[in-house]
What does this fold into?
Amino acid sequence: AQSVTQLDSHVSVSEGTPVLLRCNYSSSYSPSLFWYVQHPNKGLQLLLKYTSAATLVKGINGFEAEFKKSETSFHLTKPSAHMSDAAEYFCVVSETGRRALTFGSGTRLQVQP
Amino acid sequence: NAGVTQTPKFQVLKTGQSMTLQCAQDMNHEYMSWYRQDPGMGLRLIHYSVGAGITDQGEVPNGYNVSRSTTEDFPLRLLSAAPSQTSVYFCASSYSRQTNTEAFFGQGTRLTVV
It folds into this structure.
């Protein structure tokens, strides 16, 4: 069975400082992993995805994530936070052959001026 | 390019009423799905479809029906609304049955059942 744990429900950073959003996953097979972002009252937008190619994945808006199989982690990072990054972020896992995505519970990122 | 369009954006229902949430996509995607989003629980799959005429249950299907008569449309029906169905509902589509492909989401429908 696949599952996702987002280790922080809320993260607060100052503008210009690094962002780290943590995600651990559990999967019986080779997983595909995603990060989605949801701005207030909006739908979800794909930030980046890992599908067994390079372990360091670059996404939109300067975000990147590293797949670490030994640690079963897929943490999301950004070197310098911007006010527009304030949103909720979801880590998502999918196993090959399954027909559903499994979402983490979300991490709300606050960016202080 | 509209992408995934959900209507309505907001809805208030009385307990026991029925209604249909509409979802349409213009990307010729074969895979469509419905999720509900509740605080602290991420998104949970209600029903999904891998093509016209084919639907299946997800994680939380009770109280909901779906049908897929065309590639474009995937309506979600609440048969007899209950307060536990108060939630934000998202429709999503992707071009492949393989779930390692990107899912495109609608803007959501915020439903309140009183």
Summary: The radius of gyration of chain B is 13 Å. The mean pLDDT of chain B is 92. Residues 72 and 98 of chain B are 18 Å apart (CA to CA). The longest strand of chain B covers residues 43-51.
